[in-house]
Design brief:
By secondary structure, the protein is mostly helical. It contains four helices and no strands. This is DUF4110 domain-containing protein.
Length: 137
């Protein structure tokens, strides 16, 4: 192996020891979450199920949106329009469900890591405060 490769390995090892890899991983997760949200238009609440929401709850909450979307394409009315709207909502729900589940897992992991990082840093602060205080007599 050449010297450049060894230097890179050393830098990676130092980064791991300092915990910099963990920060990078958090940033990567955050970037992945934002990328998924942007690509699928998840900011539109009328077209996106809420995490943990069933298909029935999703359609009940957004039925007017789906019926209007169906009406633009089919010109149906009444029962046919409601069925077409439900079919559109069901299609969107099934398309997004696995992705939303993955997002929920990523967000939970990220929150756990952030909480762990906060506990670690607050623990370090508490230890410094204990060391800096002189014993009182």
């Amino acid at each position: 192996m050449n010297d450049g490769g060894k230097a890179l390995e050393t830098e990676e090892a130092v980064a791991i020891l300092r915990g910099e890899k963990k920060k990078l991983r958090r940033k990567e997760k955050h970037a992945r979450i934002e990328q998924i949200r942007a690509n699928l238009g998840l900011s539109d609440s009328q077209r996106t199920p809420v995490p943990g929401e069933s298909l029935r709850e999703f359609y009940k909450r957004t039925n007017m949106y789906w019926q209007m979307a169906a009406h633009e394409h089919t010109q149906h009315t009444g029962k046919e329009l409601r069925k077409d709207g439900f079919d559109l909502a069901e299609s969107r729900y099934k398309e997004l469900k696995p992705i939303l589940d993955e997002l929920a897992i990523l967000e939970a992991e990220q929150k756990a890591e952030e909480a762990e990082g906060a506990e670690t840093s607050s623990g370090k602060r508490n230890n410094k405060n204990k060391k800096n205080k002189a014993p009182q007599r």
